[in-house]
Write a structure and sequence with these properties.
There is one protein chain. Helix 1 runs parallel beside helix 9, helix 7 crosses helix 8 and helix 9 runs antiparallel to helix 10. The strands form two sheets. The protein has a nine-stranded mixed beta sheet with strand order 6-5-1-9-10-11-12-13-14, with helices on both faces. Strands 2, 3, 4, 7 and 8 form a five-stranded mixed beta sheet that branches. The longest helix has 15 residues. By secondary structure, it is of the alpha/beta class.
Length: about 350
């Protein structure tokens, strides 16, 4: 059985995580040959034994497992009335996720994607764009406002990709009225529209990867991630600037902006099995750390541990992640932990 963090009585800063985003699954297909798949080409390959999950599910899983009983994790989303949807709901229930706002939609399909992987590890996704997730509307998200009122000033709201921007914008707006800490992440192609409709201004934390940060900064992808992170922080406009930002960059580690200065957190060295989902694991660790009462700096260090442990699994959710496994990883790498983070991970 998973063991939650050792949170001292009265130390918890937040009591709930309420978020909207993608809930779905997928498969990994390893292609033969290094050249890019042609429009009319038939190519061989094989399916890999890896379980794939969407962003909201990943964040919700780690939050429920690490925060434990007494902390409400309530995703807001939709799955289809199909085998995939039923399996995902059961897995979330077992992790302790509250599914009162996850609707099973008759006649619709659960979000599903196929990740094509080339021999060098690069690749791309083919994702169903008319899944149940695509029909998560602003009106649908409005159903959770009573939950926001229940945890007035004591919760985190998460707006994650894979559902329409309008739905995510509605959650951030409602959460602001109820004193929630608001976290948001975006794919690169959404950032211009998200800015135009005020979502960047409505977020207290932006969680991006290096490519997304480059899009925000208006620079080309592939640059030095430290420079990209600084440029992204500098690209925040008046009314958007006084916020937290996290930028993940794989083996290069992560960068965090606290509104005044940028800090680099090296990646924890581990044997890497699969990197898919690592950014979502990092975000979950960051939100968990803040919920547990850690400083932003220590929350970033906890996030680095969660992300590192996640990439030692082939699956985008690593069921082994809990307090004990995180402490074992920190000890095995000889990491120096603050007194607060060490207490949270226990002995």
């Amino acid at each position: 059985m998973s063991e939650p963090l050792n949170i001292p009585p009265g130390r918890r800063r937040y009591d709930a995580l309420i978020g909207t985003g993608g809930i779905g699954s997928g498969a990994f297909f390893a292609l033969k040959g290094r050249h890019t798949l042609g429009r009319e080409e038939s190519r061989g390959g094989r399916f890999l034994d890896r379980r794939d999950y969407c962003k909201l599910h990943i964040v919700a899983h780690y939050a429920a497992v690490l925060m434990g009983k007494g902390f409400a994790v309530r995703p807001v989303g939709r799955v289809g009335d199909d085998e995939t949807g039923r399996r995902l709901l059961e897995e979330m229930r077992r992790a302790g996720v509250d599914l009162r706002h996850v609707e099973t939609a008759a006649g619709e399909q659960t979000m599903y994607s196929i990740c094509l992987i080339y021999p060098d590890g690069s690749g791309g996704n083919l994702t169903v764009d008319d899944s149940a997730c695509s029909r998560v509307t602003a009106e649908f998200v409005s159903r959770c406002e009573d939950d926001l009122a229940e945890f007035q000033g004591r919760g985190i709201a998460l707006a994650a990709p894979e559902v329409p921007l309008a739905a995510r914008a509605r959650l951030l707006a409602m959460a602001g009225r109820h004193g929630f800490f608001r976290a948001a992440s975006f794919v690169s192609g959404e950032l211009t529209e998200a800015r135009e409709i005020g979502m960047l201004a409505d977020a207290d934390l932006l969680a991006l990867n290096a490519d997304e940060a480059a899009a925000l900064a208006g620079v080309g992808p592939g640059g030095d991630p430290a420079d990209v992170a600084k440029a992204a922080a500098g690209a925040l406009r008046e009314g958007e600037g006084k916020k937290l930002m996290s930028v993940t960059a794989g083996r290069a580690g992560s960068w965090a902006w606290d509104g005044e200065r940028m800090t680099h957190y090296p990646a924890v060295e581990v044997p890497v099995v699969g990197t898919a989902g690592a950014g979502d694991a990092h975000l979950s660790g960051l939100l968990v750390g803040l919920s547990a009462g850690l400083s932003f700096d220590d929350a970033c260090r906890l996030a680095s541990l969660v992300a590192a442990l996640s990439v030692t699994s082939p699956h985008t959710i690593d069921d082994r992640v809990d307090r004990r496994s995180l402490r074992a990883l920190a000890d095995s790498r000889g990491l120096e932990l603050s007194a607060e983070l060490a207490a949270l991970l226990g002995g």
